[in-house]
Amino acid sequence: MDVRFDGRVAIVTGAGGGLGRCHALALAARGAKVVVNDLGGTVDGAGAASAAALRVVEEIRAAGGMAIANGASVTDFAAVEEMVQQAREAFGRVDILVNNAGILRDKSFAKMGLDDFRAVFEVHVMGAVHCTKAVWELMREQGYGRIVMTTSSSGLYGNFGQSNYGAAKMALVGLMQTLSIEGAKHDIRVNCLAPTAATRMTEGIIPAAQLALLTPESVTPALLALVAENAPSRAILCAGAGSFESAHVSLTHGLHLGTGDGVADQILARLDEISDRDGDQVPGSGAAQGMLELTKGVVEHADN
Ligand SMILES: NC(=O)c1ccc[n+]([C@@H]2O[C@H](COP(=O)([O-])OP(=O)(O)OC[C@H]3O[C@@H](n4cnc5c(N)ncnc54)[C@H](O)[C@@H]3O)[C@@H](O)[C@H]2O)c1
User: Fold this and answer.
1) Where are the domains of the chain?
2) Ligand 1 centroid – CA 70 distance (Å)
3) Rounded Cα gap, residues 15 and 59, in angstroms
4) CATH 3.40.50.300 is held by the domain 9-247
5) pLDDT tens digit string along 131-174?
6) Which atom of ligand 1 is nearest to the CA of 123?
7) Are 276 and 252 a contacting pair, CB within 8 Å?
């Protein structure tokens, strides 16, 4: 196994079950010292107990690995800071953060209350912000960090009944885009994982016949690649049933139409050309995308 984590310390949030447990076991099996975080609680975020995290720690230790349990809620910044302190006291550093904790509150938008929106944002978005904030300075000082945000196809492409969850998961893509830019000079690489797996979260959503293929174990290799020494940065890696794809927020070449009363009509008339994906690209930053537009305008002016 070339992908090893000897001497590395990893925090995996929501690692008491499902994908997080599988990530934690695999990291530990490849040499990482792991902080297994899990609040416990039900799939919609009610209740709290860290028994689940303790069970995973026992599994890791039984297999000869090193791990400690932590029961912080990722929504509680003070508790998250204590978790990072606990990691440093036990293992000396934090090299890898896997933001995996999550809940669901699925309803059609018509039926969804604002509390369902806020609860989902608090765990997925603020939870990842809290954990990342708590390790960021340390990773800058170390000149090394690997961070994964767990996004979802629901955010990337939408799913009925998941407006809160999808919006939160896409917010994590935005967080990753900027942090991968800001972290680059300290060798902090930030990526997104979009998994598909049979866990309690997908019970009743994915038909039983397909569940057997969608093991967490078939997703975890993607996580390992995204936190490896030679990991990419700014990737959005999709993984499910042993298949792996890369998703991109790409930009078409488009058209320069200038200004004037008729531009809205021209946009509608030439939407196929504007949307033509031949030669599309992924700009290096939001600012770079703005420069592309400006440059097209300047070139057009020079030509006229
Ligand atoms: N299973 C899938 O197909 C799928 C698809 C896309 C994204 N995801 C994402 O993958 C991640 C893992 O999900 P899973 O499918 O393994 O589900 P899961 O419910 O088994 O795992 C989520 C874990 O997060 C923990 N958790 C919830 N709130 C927490 C909090 N405030 N603080 C700490 N821990 C908390 C839960 O106790 C649970 O153990 C989630 O972020 C989920 O949104 C899963």
Assistant:
1) 9-247, 263-303
2) 16
3) 12
4) no
5) 999 999 999 999 999 999 999 999 999 999 999 999 999 999 99
6) 31
7) yes
